[in-house]
Amino acid sequence: MLNALPTLKETPSQTAGPYVHIGLTPGLEGMGGSNVPDLGSGPINAGNGQPITIAGCIFDGSAAPVGDAVVELWQADADGTHAEGWGRTAGAADGSFRFETIKPGRVLGPDGQPMAPHLTLWIVARGINVGLHTRLYFDDEGEANATDFILNRIMDSRRRKTLIAARSEVEGRPTYSLDIRLQGENETVFFDI
Amino acid sequence: MIPLPGEDGALYQRDRTWHPPANTPGYKSTTFRAPKHPPLSLAQTRSELTGPTFGHGSLGPLDNDLIHNFSAEGGEAIGQRLIVYGQVLDENARPVRGTLVEFWQANAGGRYRHKREGYVAALDPNFGGCGRAITDDNGYYHFRTIKPGAYPWPNGGNDWRPAHIHFSVFGHAFAQRLITQMYFEGDPMIWQDPIALSIPDRAAVEQLIARLDRQNTTPMDSLAYRFDIVLRGRRSTLFENRSEGN
Ligand SMILES: [Fe+3]
Asked: What tens digit of pLDDT does each residue of B42-52 get?
């Protein structure tokens, strides 16, 4: 296999710092600016499908909530193709975040088989030097999860559950809850993608 | 269609030695926020090789003018006036077109407009401190602003951040997503800053330093600084059989 060598070095990452909300969710910070709504706010536009809520909380290694994060979500539509399914939210002071979206379909995996339905999450905050990539899977997709190429790459099977959100119903709407732990017991699996 | 080299296929692996490690004790906030497990290598799929796109309709007319985008009618932000511009490229030196670049910063006194800001410097009523731009067909972005001040922060006993502007860039794949900070050429405080020095390689820190560009200053108005940004590039896949493209 022949590959060209890269000619430039990627710009190094730096922490988003404690004031990332000014930059990425300025409306929520009351910045006004030129009065355009925050990019990625509101329900995620991933086409038609089963409406769901994603709810989570971010904790640090001392089990304290991370109250200054920004979380971005990228997902496929219900048919498994990626189009516009992007959202962004400011983590609240209590570490919580939520998205309103639809349940994604299955995307082709590296082995040519469909992966289990999942969302891709990216987390930045003060004290995070390089943005953290992870995934959210669904606990009512047990069969698909069991054969998912990526989940099966996690050699320590006990750690797989850190990516699997628990379903509940809130006023008839499926809500999937998953806490993100940056460090410590049950540290979330983060990916070098 | 045969893809051009570098235009299809997976992204080059991120060179983690060029980036700060997760735990950098000089920057104390990393202590409890750095994952202890190394990040797990993941074969890239469409979930990472695709990403959101933004049109010019996503932006307001003053989004790339921080001197005016928060000011009262007829007002202007106080400070040394700057044009900050640069080219967004990938590692193959190809322009990254039509991508969203966002930036935020302190005012000329070093104060952020944020409820948890603890520095006593004055707020500028005409300065908000955030903006955004979309790169043009050659990958260039630009914006007008004022030079941010240095500011103290609670880390060591008396640590000060060098003047800097925070940047967020998307690229075209979610795996290219990048947040970084831009510093100013000639600033001695860069080399005393625990956050800049979280990057182990001095040459990598140098890549974050914008160059003063006297050719692009506006007479009697603005100094210019150039800050180019490099996102991850794609490998050539001319000789690979792939079940999917992008
Ligand atoms: Fe800052």
From this structure: 889 999 999 99
